[in-house]
Design a protein that fits this description.
Belongs to the sigma-70 factor family. ECF subfamily. By secondary structure, this protein is mainly alpha-helical. Helices cover about 70% and strands about 0% of the residues. The protein has two domains: about 5-75, RNA polymerase sigma factor, region 2, helix turn helix motif (Rna Polymerase Sigma Factor, Chain: A, Orthogonal Bundle); about 100-165, Arc Repressor Mutant, subunit A, CATH 1.10.10.10. It is built from seven helices and no strands. It starts with a helix and ends in a 7-residue tail after the last helix.
Length: about 170
């Protein structure tokens, strides 16, 4: 395939690549950058494309690999490696330890609110909170699964109303 034919084929496929780029990045500007970088790599590596293979799949692979590489590079860039001998920050005001008293108050309020729920709502809610599935709760309590879902929903709604003071935290 000549360079001109490949360029023409790639240009036709860019419309199909844009939604995939958007799906990966979840941002229009980043998707455009990823698309541009993919096309640049495809043009510069056109000699590696094997004629008779799927051009669209080749471009999707380039885009996916470019996205993964960029993501890993960003993750490495944002990872701080402490090279001090004692392996901790000294006099660093960036990392502060919070006083956990507030969380103890809120946990006490949450537990009190759960304890004050009507038993019909409290039991399914607590079981769900502990990791039981809806059908397991229904089996253990000998009630229909729809009732379980309804009671958990009502318990959540009641707790949300009682604990709205913590909504902004």
């Amino acid at each position: 395939m000549k360079a001109l034919e490949l360029s023409s084929s790639i240009d036709q496929l860019t419309i199909a690549l844009k939604p995939f780029a958007l799906k990966l990045t979840k941002d229009v500007d980043e998707a455009n950058d990823l698309l541009q970088e993919t096309l640049l790599k495809a043009y510069s590596n056109r000699d590696k494309f094997v004629e008779g293979t799927n051009l669209k799949a080749w471009l999707y692979t380039i885009m996916r690999n470019t996205f993964i590489t960029n993501y890993q590079r960003l993750a490495r860039k944002n990872t701080f490696i402490d090279t001090t001998d004692s392996l901790h920050y000294i006099n660093s005001s960036e990392h502060l330890t919070q006083n956990l008293a507030f969380s103890k108050f809120s946990l006490a309020d949450i537990n009190r609110a759960i304890d004050n729920l009507d038993e019909a709502y409290k039991q399914p809610f607590v079981m769900y909170f502990r990791g039981f599935k809806y059908h397991e709760i229904a089996d253990r309590l000998h009630i229909p699964i729809g009732t379980v879902k309804n009671r958990i929903h009502i318990a959540r709604k009641t707790l949300k109303k009682k604990l709205k003071v913590y909504a902004s935290n």
